[in-house]
Amino acid sequence: MPRYNPLVQAKRRAPFYVLCVFLVTISFAILSLLKLEPIAQNLVQDHNSNIDLQQLVNSTIDTPQDAKIEDKEKTSDWPQPARSLEVPPGELKLVRIGGTGGPVDNARDFLLDNLEEFLQVYKDRPDKTNTCGIRINHSLAIYTITKRLQPTTIVESGVNSGQSTYFFRKAAPNANIISIDPMDKPICGQPVRWIDDTNNEYLTGSNFVDFDQVNWGERIKSGAVNPSSTLVFVDDHRGFYKRFPTLMTFGFRHVINEDNYKIGEGATPQDKSGFTPKQMWEKPADPETQWLFQNSKIYAEFPPILPPVLSKSSPHPKKPQGGFLHHTDKLAAIEEPLLRPDINDSDKKVFERIGNELGLDLTMVESQSYQEFMGYCFICYMELVPIPPSLRNAWKLGADLKDKRTKS
């Protein structure tokens, strides 16, 4: 009978030992991964995930310039806008026309570069609540677009408390402003209208002349108004597209539509009539929509500052008339926000700074804070393609137009 040799037995059992060690190692690895998976999921949040806003307010305030540094580990998967009307009806949610957004382009950089200045201007605004008017999102849009364009003339159709006038004046101190409103005083119980005493003409109250009735031909002919360097701000709830006969007749090219409601939303029947660009893009086969698309050199919705998911803790229901973002909104209908505190640590600090400077509740549980941060109605900038000179002459458009409707 052969003698027992431990060395030989060890060699024979070596493969078995190696297999055992391998299986144990794999088991520990799998258990480790299972334990780490929830942590990884918490670290990498997408724009639809729940946000622990308490963590946001615990971070320290830092310079907003830090937010320009890209976080390579947290990339955005926000839906991209369409650049064509050739999509099935009902699927078109967001449109952008033009290679860039003109004065809307790189709005994030503008905010970060001018944060101190804008926050001071915003803190000094005449109406701190502005119940029926613009809040921080649309104020930033007006300020950014105007400061970049530097128009020679600003025409605002719809004034109410004068909040928009204030931001236009701060952004363009040398511009002539024509303020149009049928009311002498603001609505919604707002006590007074802010009055601009620098190069401002008020066609309001007893002096009211509707935008379509103003003697633009005479003003252009005299040199008082240059339509190619004029910015028209439409905030009159009369159906934005219905202003286009006047805009195109007199060659106005730069336009802001403040209340760019989605289909079915609006504060007035005219708002809901289907004549905001946002509503018209939902009807791609309509000839009016196709004309607007083809005759817009630029169409760009100014992005909101924050994503709607940050209002997740807010108890306030979605408003059926629109005008406010809500955490249940479909992201495909919204331009990607300027700040992404939900995925970017530096943006969290900027968000905290804005909230602290303005005394707002970052969780948006408090009503006024929710309205400030989420007040947004897809405000858009458009640069229109002007009618060429040969057609203007043939149709007798512009400065030589004799219009019996002209009143002032």
Short structural description:
This protein has 408 residues and is of the alpha/beta class. Helix content is 34%, strand content 9%. The termini are far apart.
Helix content: 25-40%
Average of pLDDT: 83
Number of helices: 13
Low-confidence region ranges: 1-11, 27-51, 56-73, 402-407
The total strand number stands at 7
Strand content: 5-15%
Distance between the termini: 125 Å
Q: Give the overall shape, derived from the CA principal axes.
A: globular
What topology, given as strand order, has the largest sheet?
3-2-1-4-5-7-6
Order of helices and strands: HHHHHEHEEHEHEHHEHHEH
Q: Largest beta sheet, briefly?
A: 7 strands, mixed
User: Mind telling me the C-alpha Rg?
Assistant: 28 Å
Helix/strand class: alpha/beta
Tags for this model:
seven-stranded mixed β-sheet; 408 residues; disordered N terminus; alpha/beta; 13 helices; disordered C terminus; globular
